[in-house]
Design goal:
Shape: elongated
Strand order of the largest sheet: 1-5-2-4-3-6
CATH topology of the domain at 40-137: Barwin-like endoglucanases
Largest sheet: 6 strands, mixed, barrel
Helix content: 10-25%
Enzyme class: lyase
EC number: 4.2.2.-
Domain RlpA-like protein double-psi beta-barrel: 44-134
Number of helices: 2
Distance between the termini: 68 Å
CATH architecture of the domain at 40-137: Beta Barrel
CATH superfamily of the domain at 40-137: RlpA-like domain
Radius of gyration: 27 Å
Number of strands: 6
Order of helices and strands: HEEEEEHE
Structural class: alpha/beta
GO molecular function: lytic endotransglycosylase activity
Family: Belongs to the RlpA family.
Length: 141
């Protein structure tokens, strides 16, 4: 083999072997990202309805926050303000995690009122009231 052919062969071998020696290109290693589902503390079932600025007669919530119709928030009779819950529409299986920032609902048989935005994402604005599962999520400290 000529000297040029040997040089080309060595260059190709080097190009093929070098990537297998590199970690990730920047000299550091990274741990894999592990996504975990929130832990469920308790479960309630019942009916959910939605509310808006118009049906709430204003923009004030019991927590003092301004009512944002598109926010992932809800009203519950007894859960502490700031509690995270997963609301699942039992009619279609859609769910969303919301934060309790208001009191209600004040209609017998209903366990939670969600904002009209959440109701839209869960697919029940036109229906108004649907059966739901409310999972109270544990906070990670």
């Amino acid at each position: 083999m000529t000297r040029n052919l040997k040089s080309v062969a060595l260059a190709i071998a080097g190009v093929l072997l070098l990537p297998s020696c590199a970690a990730n290109g920047n000299g550091t290693t990274t741990a894999p990202v592990v996504r975990t589902e929130p832990t469920v503390k308790s479960v309630q079932t019942g009916k959910a309805s939605w509310y808006s600025i118009r049906t709430n007669h204003g923009t004030k919530t019991a927590s003092g926050q301004r009512l944002d119709e598109q926010a992932a928030t809800a009203a519950h009779k007894t859960l502490p303000m700031g509690t995270k819950v997963r609301v699942t529409n039992m009619s279609n299986g859609k769910s969303e995690i919301v934060t309790i920032n208001d009191r209600g609902p004040f209609v017998q048989g209903r366990v939670i009122d969600v904002t009209v935005g959440v109701a839209g994402r869960l697919g029940f604005v036109k229906k108004g009231v649907v059966p739901v599962k409310v999972e109270v999520l544990k906070t990670v400290q």
